[in-house]
Amino acid sequence: MKGYPKQYPLDRQTLFGINTMGLMSTTAYYLYTAVLMMFITDYSGIYSGVPGKAAAVATTLLFVGRLWDAVNDLWTGYLIDISPRTRWGKFKPYVLIGSLLAGILGMMLFHIPQNFSNFGKEVYLYIVYFLFMFAATIIVTVPLTSTMSADQEVRAKLISWPRITSNIVGVVFAFFMAIATYLGTKRNPNIPLTVDLIVIPFLILSLIGIVMVKEGPVTEEAKPPRLRDIGQMIKINHPFRINLYFTFVGGFVWALLTATSLYYIKYAFGVKNLGTQSMYFGLLTLITLVAGTLISQKAMQYISAIRGVQWCYLAMAPFLVIMFIINEIHVIDNPWVFYLLIGIVMTIAGAQFVPANLIIMETMDYNRLKLNAGMEATINAVNMFLQKLQSGLATIGVGAALLIVGYNAQTLEKASHVPDNLLQSLGVVLFAIPAVFSFLAYLIARHYPLQGAARDEMYAALAAKRVTNTQSSKSK
């Protein structure tokens, strides 16, 4: 943080707070994307020994959960937007409450009462999972960050550092299966205890960070939205619509990578090596995301956010196609070949994070210009819903690949040879489908309207409007 001016929002206290306030949100994301499905299918004890049944339960749960989010995210975002601004701000109280609930419910999700029947375990999972996802929804860190400044470079710094800090969570999850194996056994890793040991410290750090953050003044002049403003927003806010289209399509790349990679690693490189190999993969994830974030933060000084997003989508597709072709000819059973190629894709995906969030903030700014309505939480909720829907649909893709081959973890873990058709089915979900989505997202992103002069004109109009509102307030 050396070299930053000691003034809000780049002062040390605010930077420390903004760097840590989202740690629980990141932890929640890793829990439901990287750990939960494998926990249910392989280690939860639900429908143990019944081929395909646990995979079907996990697939259905995670998909239905995303349908719940379709309703939950939108009305929750609107309620946050119309809620009164407190002395702590509009968004900060929700970030605090959401983080606390997500931490508690996240631990409960992995502590399924073993004396319940299989049906009872399903009911427990549905109830806790739905509440957990609701809690994650109200951790509105992006709207909170957008209130601190309207300057692209300042926003890029405010987004980049938390992204890098959040990789502390990634480091820990890189060792997740190794820790769980150490606390349990190779055949029965202690996942519930490992979740507890990870969630508790990150929850505490998140709460400390939230307390230290001061919500900014950028959105103070905007009026609370009316219900009909949502329809107006969808109709008038063309940048928002285009962003939704390419975010929805392009987001499948990362969703499929995170949902499928552990299964591929487990069976391509040997079940007994899962703890070690998952650690390598986790460290690779950390390195690539940090590298990508630093690259994109620097790039935002020279190019627009939309240009950065377009280049990232276009660059990922060829490497994914190469991996698919290799996997079809011969399963990628050499971990270093896999890590080299997937690492390139993940670095590019990591570079997309900063410009993608800057675009979301641009659509919020456009909304304030056209409707004079503060709808940051609603816009953020729609984007969060897309991420969760992508994760749910990605889970279906993985589940379909597992169901096609009659996946049974207990049988496969004892098998002397893993069928190639399992890894090739996973390869379609992990490589081929993301390549198609990446290229389609690039084509859609080319139609984003706030490019070049159009973007400059929008911010000039916003600045003029802010001056007019200030003068009007002083004259009263």
Automatic annotation (TrEMBL):
GO terms for biological process: carbohydrate transport; sodium ion transport. InterPro entries: MFS_2, MFS_trans_sf, Na/Gal_symport_CS. GO terms for molecular function: symporter activity. Signal peptide: none annotated. It is a multi-pass membrane protein. The keyword Glycoprotein does not apply. One of its GO terms (cellular component) is plasma membrane. Keywords: Cell membrane, Membrane, Sugar transport, Transmembrane, Transmembrane helix, Transport. It is found in: Cell membrane. The chain crosses the membrane at residues 21-40, 94-112, 124-144, 164-185, 191-213, 242-265, 277-296, 308-326, 338-360, 392-410, 422-445. PANTHER family: MAJOR FACILITATOR SUPERFAMILY (MFS) PROFILE DOMAIN-CONTAINING PROTEIN, MAJOR FACILITATOR SUPERFAMILY DOMAIN-CONTAINING PROTEIN. This is Melibiose symporter. It comes from Lacticaseibacillus paracasei.
